[in-house]
Amino acid sequence: MSVLDSKVPKGPLKTKWTDYKDHINLVNPANKRNIDVIVVGTGLAGGSAAATLAELGYNVKTFCYQDSPRRAHSIAAQGGINAAKNYQGDGDSVYRLFYDTIKGGDYRSREANVYRLAEVSANIIDQCVAQGVPFARDYGGLLDNRSFGGVLVSRTFYAKGQTGQQLLLGAYSAMNRQIARGKITPFNRHEMLDVVKVDGKARGIIARDLVTGKLERHSAHAVVIASGGYGNVYFLSTNAMGSNATAAWKIHKKGAFFANPCYTQIHPTCIPRSGDYQSKLTLMSESLRNDGRIWVPKNIEDVKAIREGRKKPTDLSEDERDYYLERRYPAFGNLVPRDVASRAAKERCDAGYGVNATGEAVYLDFASAITRYGKEQAKIHGISNPSDAKIYELGKGIVEAKYGNLFQMYEKIVDENPYETPMMIYPAVHYTMGGIWVDYNLMTTIPGCYAIGEANFSDHGANRLGASALMQGLADGYFVLPYTIGDYLSHEIRTGKIPTDTPEFEEAEKSVKDRIDFFINNKGTHSVDYYHKKLGNIMWNKCGMSRNAEGLKEAAEEIKALREDFYKNVSVPGSADELNSELEKAGRVADFLELGELFAKDALVREESCGGHFREESVEEDGEQKGEAKRNDAEYAFVSAWEYKGEPSEAILHKEQLEFKEIELKQRSYK
Amino acid sequence: MNLTLKIWRQKGPKDKGSMVDYKVSDISEHMSFLEMMDVLNEQLINEGKEPVAFDHDCREGICGSCSMFINGEAHGPDRGVTTCQLHMRMFKDGDVITIEPFRAKAFPVIKDLVVDRSSFDRIQHAGGYISVNTSGNTQDANAIPISKHAADEAMDAATCIGCGACVASCKNASAMLFVGAKVSQYALLPQGRIEAVDRVKNMVAQMDLEGFGNCTNTGACEVECPKGISLENIARMNREYLFANIKD
After folding, report:
1. What share of chain A is helix, strand, coil (3-state, %, to 5)?
2. Handedness of CA A607, A609, A610, A611 (dihedral sign)
3. Pair (B135, B238) in one structural domain
4. Which contiguous run of DSSP H or E holds residue B232?
5. CB contact A140 to B (< 8 Å)
6. Residue limits of the 4Fe-4S ferredoxin-type domain (chain B) (predicted)?
7. Closest-CA residue of chain A to B61
8. Residues B102 and B123 in one domain
9. Is the Cβ pair B63, A159 closer than 8 Å?
10. Which residues in chain A have their CB less than 8 angstroms from residue B28's CB?
């Protein structure tokens, strides 16, 4: 039998969670006062978990590297949050949300977890409204919805284009209430640098005060990791500059299995890179694809002319354009899922049809949407024989109302007016579905150590649906972990305060200190960013939107060599006992340099194409789906969970077989 | 383009600090301001010098971390953007750019351009929340109808990113726009009315305790706010505050 026990409760899918909650162990309020919990990360998952655990009566300590919990990168989510409320009466239900999530994840997630997620989703909206989150409303005063991510119902709740911000401020306000009550002690500008295990259980962490550089020991009866995803392993991504995998990687090295590292989501509608100095990429909501048409020139001469500035995209007639998504996927057209749209853009650019100087951009054109809306409006307003100028004016008004803020953002960054000339877009790394392996209780393979939100692997399989990241973060933090952690903590009521003057803490602190001293004393020749960029290049070119065995083997070798060079030649200025952002980055990049290799190894093992993971060797050979991704359910319907054994190349693979009882597995088709 | 940068360097909170001149060359107009700072820092590291410390994170104008006072303006010369969204095309070859931290008594400098804005957090601890448990057993979300107008207005107030540009721009280092925005968001929603009296009193008391100045209606905060938070929020807070005190 596998060493992995998912602990999924018995019984029918629809009543599993309720039955389980009814029989789970509880901790009485008087005992909760004597139990400490550490939460690392204060985004949607960590913030909501910290607030709820404190409210239940546990003593909570939160840690974040930002200067305030409110700045965690959940704040940047634009579009919305899914919930099976069926307020629109369009046939939505818990089952449908469950089904869409499993299918969207290309049948690589755990049924019981996903069903629970769909089940608690409606409560999230109730909770957030009660907290004062200003969701969009219709004129009758009720909540408004939009449709999102190519599903058949309208179940996405939103607050303008800033849904993540508003939900995070909601969780932050719940934290503030508990901070005021003394139940949460926030440690901002702190970074967790190791987990401490005592008798096999997670018992605390070593954290560095990023302002003074002082190392601190913090003990607790349980440690919750809510530190987000590892998209920055690519250097360029839509993640925040500080987003990192260090907390997750540290627990991995101490015994937490890392699941499906190769599952990455690459989002199709981002603003292209403009040069080598680029520090991060900016995403624009995928709602743009509802009205924008994606194309590149048909003739390579036109591509050259455009790049050299001899022609403008608007000079090209309709037959000189290749609307490649509409051509390849007539049924879904520009609305194919994120992974399909991203790969199609790469295919055209790799063939030499990229339209900007870097050769990595395609057009997203709103001209026909403006004309279509303009004609519609002319009809509505009873204007007969409207002039082209009038049609443009009316149509532009509609497009502006729908996407005005995105157009403005684009113009600020690119300095081109997207009403007059097509936008340029290119895919960028956006989200990582893989993460720390957790059981049904969200506990890792280290007893007493939990992982929630993007940091775990549990709910999105090989590909995540739009507007589901926010849902999962809050579901884990508000409604799942607070129950399941009680089951574990009920055995800790007699433990008492955990001392930090023990050999285990001593040793952990010493190894953290040694590593910091190493970086400071290394006095090498290259900056941390030099290595981070090199790593990003390898990842993007060989572990990016499409992967093959040869490239993945090379990637693993190259990353290993880069890591060795890093340890020899990295230079970190300044000292250890002050605010030192280069030192912070060095530690994070060191961890990415290990994670990247495991990523390549995982991608190599998975010889199928599924969701965000596309293996060039695994495509449909013939028929209507020729050339499209080919999944292999017979051999690969499992979760890869990697056990750390020193070098990433020595990691051991454990498989959790996925069982689908409620859903029939189907190949996705968008033709 | 080639630029001269005059940057505030301060080793730590107790250091006196001073402006130091730097030169950067071959700066592309398409770079963001912070990417230009990255170029400078890479240059300093390669010269064996200490890079300039500054706060930044999302680099897309929403986290509120970045906080530079550029040529005498919070977040620089462009309107409606944070420092990370400011682009070098706003400057020209040969320009001299002064870069300072957000200055206020309640925002002490930690290092170089990094300031301590935890006073903002403490004001929120004093009342920036609705006292509702996160148990999930609240009433159905649609049981509280809220007019679209009120919801939109609350949303406008709630877009504040807590960067502190308002404080840095104010000659009195007042935080009234920030506090007014938070008070307004809750005051405009029925869920927030229940605790409205205590909230405004407690938050204002904490704001005063932190050493922020008073508002003298200059309006610089509104002009420099990257999110366009309106002065109306200060007026609303003043009304709420007056009402709360009359009620006592």
Report:
1. 45, 15, 40
2. positive
3. yes
4. helix B232-247
5. yes
6. 151-181
7. A76
8. no
9. no
10. 274-275, 277
Contacts of residue B191 in chain A, CB cutoff 8 Å? 129-132
Q: State the smallest CA–CA distance between residue A212 and chain B in angstroms.
A: 10
Minimum distance, in Å, between the CA of residue B215 and any CA atom of chain A? 25
- Chain B residue with Cα closest to A143: B142
* Rounded distance between C-alpha atoms, residue A193 and residue A177, angstroms: 28
Q: How far apart are CA B177 and CA B187, in angstroms?
A: 15
Separation in Å, CA of A403 to nearest CA in chain B: 17
How far is Cα A463 from Cα A466, in angstroms, rounded to an integer? Answer: 10
Query: CB A142 to CB B145 under 8 A?
Result: yes
Of A68, A130, A137, the CB nearest to B146: A137
Lowest mean pLDDT among A110-119, A148-157, B30-39: A148-157
**Nearest-by-CA chain B residue for A279:** B35
Instruction: Give me the sign of the Cα torsion angle A466, A470, A471, A473.
Output: positive
- Contacts of residue B14, defined as CB under 8 A and 6 or more positions apart, other chains included, come to none
Instruction: Look at chain A and count its residues.
Output: 671
Q: Of B93, B111, B129, which residue constitutes the final position of a domain?
A: B111
Residues B137 and B74 in one domain: no
Give the closest of A48, A242, A571 to B134, CB-based.
A48
Tell me which residues of chain A, numbers 412 to 431, contact chain B at a CB-CB cutoff of 8 Å: 412-415
What's the confidence (pLDDT) of residue A1? Answer: 47
Q: Which of B111, B138, B159 is the last residue of a domain?
A: B111
pLDDT at A85: 96
Amino acid identity for residue A327 in this structure: R
Q: Which one of A137, A479, A573 has the shortest CB-CB distance to B45?
A: A573
CATH at residue B178: 1.10.1060.10
Q: Is B229 in the same domain as B146?
A: yes
User: What stretches of A349-501 adopt beta strand conformation (E)?
Assistant: 362-365, 423-432, 435-436, 449-451
pTM strictly above 0.90: yes
Give the nearest chain A residue to B10 (CA atoms).
A579
Q: How far is CA A566 from CA A160, A236, A249, A545, A593, in A?
A: 43, 19, 18, 26, 9
- Answer for the pair A105, A463: CB distance below 8 angstroms, yes or no: yes
Summarize chain B as % helix, strand, coil (round to 5): 40, 15, 45
Kindly state whether residues B76 and B141 are assigned to the same domain.
Answer: no
Q: How confident is the model at residue A110 (pLDDT cuts 50, 70, 90)?
A: very high
Q: Evaluate if residue A399 carries a pLDDT over 70.
A: yes
Rg (CA), chain B: 20
Reading the block at residue B49, the tokens are 């010098």
ipTM score: 0.98
| Co-location of B74 and B155 in the same domain | no
Residue A423 φ/ψ, nearest 5 degrees: -70, 155
- A-chain CB neighbours of B121 within 8 Å are 68, 70, 176, 186, 188
Look up the domain containing B24 and give its range.
Answer: 3-111
Are A486 and A27 in contact by the 8 Å Cβ rule? The answer is: yes
Q: Confidence class of residue A149 from pLDDT cuts 50, 70 and 90? A: low
Contact between A604 and A552 under an 8 Å Cβ cutoff? The reply is: yes
Q: B166 and B69 in contact (C-beta within 8 Å)?
A: no
Name the domain count of chain B.
2
Token pair recorded at residue A185: 């002690």
- Mutate which: A125, A135, A280, A282, vs B, most B CBs within 10 A: A280
* Structure confidence at residue A150 (pLDDT): 62
Beta bridge pairs of residue B101: B68
With contacts defined as CB-CB under 8 Å, which chain B residues touch A162?
62, 159
Residue A290 has pLDDT above 90, yes or no: no
> Is A71 part of the contact surface with chain B (CB cutoff 8 Å)?
yes
Domains of chain A: 267-429 (3.90.700.10), 503-617 (1.20.58.100)
